[in-house]
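Contributing: when you submit paired examples, paste them exactly as shown. First protein:
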Amino acid sequence: MLIFAHRGASADAPENTLAAFELAIEQGVDGIELDVHLIEDELYVIHDRYLHRTTSGVGRVRNQTKASIQQLDAGGGQRVPSLWDALTCIKGACAVNIELKGLDNIIPLVKLLDQAVEKLSFDVSQFLISSFNHHLLFELNQLRPDLLIGGLTASCPLDYAAFADRLNAYSVHIDVDCVTPAFVADAHSRGKQVYVYTVDELEDLDELAAMGVNGVFSNRPKPALIRRAHYLQSAEPAPLAVEDYSPSAD
């Protein structure tokens, strides 16, 4: 089971900041999840549509300029990093899940990722691009089928992970409140990885391990990493068989 630091090690450092990413790397995560918005011609790492929850600013992110967003305090004196700043910080140390939030043009993202592969010790396979906007993911897959994509869902659809087939997705990312053994079994039968967000309770982690999920996103990656090590030292909960939880049985 892979452990992704959700917005970095965000329980212990300001979310989506270089401090949170550095701490996650120090803790030994398999990957870091972060969120991006396009401001002018540059991608910046911030989750919300509005500034007030995570920064010293107010108003919509999309109304900012590069100059104005660079002046904001994102917590503890941290700045809102550009995606390039974030990737320079991570520098191939782990995988990076980039969730597309406020953008409608994927060309700046593609160009930046190519530069990161060339200059920052990343392999293209270390990037996983996810979004609730499946139109963007479909467009990205048409343009760059070599980039891994993850289809996000906040529900358990009637046809389970069928949407991931339509997207040619590598993985499906589902809310911990919605994931079921049947969903996991269906996704695996389609050859998709299953990643679950946001998993901060060890009881949930144990249950998901028993379902056979492939990875989780956690604000508290260190306890999750310790728990995973315990699974490996003892006996990781056995994944439930696909035939035990066929979609028709849910």
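Second protein:
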Amino acid sequence: MDATDAFRRPVSDEAELAGMPPLIIERAREAAESEGSSGYLLTLDAPTYSAVMAQADSEALRAEYYEAWVTRASDCGPHAGQWNNADIIERILALRHESADLLGYPSFAALSLATKMAGSADDVIEFLRGLGRRSKPVAESELARLEKHAGRKLEAWDIAYYSERLKRQLFSFSDEDLRPYFPAPRVLDGAFEIIRELLGIRIERVPAVGLWHADAERFELRDNREQLIGTLLTDLYARPNKRGGAWMDGAYSRSWLPKAEQLPVAYLVCNFNPPTASRPSLLTHGEVVTVFHELGHALHHLLTEIDYPSLSGINGVPWDAVELPSQFLENYAWLEAALPRISAHYETGEPLPAQTLATLKQTRRFQAGLAMVRQLEFGLFDFLMHAEYDPARGGRVDEHLATVREEIAVIEVPTYNRFPNTFSHVFGGGYAAGYYSYKWAEVLAADAYSAFEERGSFDRDTAERYRRCILAAGGSRDTLAAFTEFRGREPSLDPLLRQSGIVA
């Protein structure tokens, strides 16, 4: 966060911002004005970074932003050495290995798996490498197509920019074109409508008294008998000194014990472009998917029926299954019947045009191979780094990353890239030796949603079985057994590969 907040990029000539979304330019102008300056002031918050990489016509600006982003808290880049995390990373890895050794495990990866669905380190490695073998040829063909479209070999800072242009050519719109149709308040209210139809849960806004920021809101969840189930707190917009990314966590867990009666409370945090004086916060469809993802986590925590706080909600759920409800709910952000509920032009109120809606669904598989290998690269790097740690040799962070990139990645990155120094999921969060969980749970989520595809996306019997087996159970039972009860069989890889377009 220190390295991110320290980056400032004044712009005096608006021509340098050619191609950038008006919302980002307006924010940059307001930022400069707030500091008593003329022109524009760009920062390194996630919405601005994403906009520069995907929209800025200036390759020099994209390259500058890319370097600033991938060198944060490292020995390279505009603040080289000032907040270098390298020694901290080594210390974290050493202490994790020591903790595993004290508990009788050969590695931190083995310790991590003791409370997860995956059976062994070999199972995880083969799972990731197996997906890699099937995905890499698709990713290579997608990159070749992108470079043919661009007419040249692409650098790492060119990928998002030319991807947006190829998408516009293929589908006649880009992510930025859709922003006016996805004002954040409409997206959230529409998502609540979808949840009500799917699960019979009403979510209503209530006065937000005593919360931590003016942007924060409070919502109450009630069942079909109007009984209070839990509370959801949201904080959706980026601001200075706020941790980047998007996440959900439990503020309170359900407890229904003598002298300890407590309903669950969850908070949902994002970093979307904040509203301005002239318009509300406008989201890309990718950000809409993020809203559904985090709401899926929130439902998992809030709809629990377990009375013991150590096992209610997301507590006690194996880490490689905790992403199942979040990735499952993402499907409803793409559903034709659901999209009109979450889209309304912020000026006219018109829903997303039918043809645009149909075309949007086709974009779901756009560059799915590139997206797949990117996540596999992160997951395999994380797992091997912890599985193969040797106290005599240290973390070998760069060595592991280079090996994995050689095996999995298709996009070349410059030598100054210091991705591990900002890999907060693993070094500052709970995903150590567990980043593979995103793909593991994605298999479960795609397979779970395939049950609804067979019976109908809002089929009440299927939804009730999903709620009972997955959402309500918390950490009270074996996840594989719960999934098998819901699906009628053990999970299959095929629905994810079909959904992603990796196989026909």
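If you have annotations for the second protein, write them as plain sentences, like these:
Residues 182 and 232 are 21 Å apart (CA to CA).
The chain has a mean pLDDT of 95.
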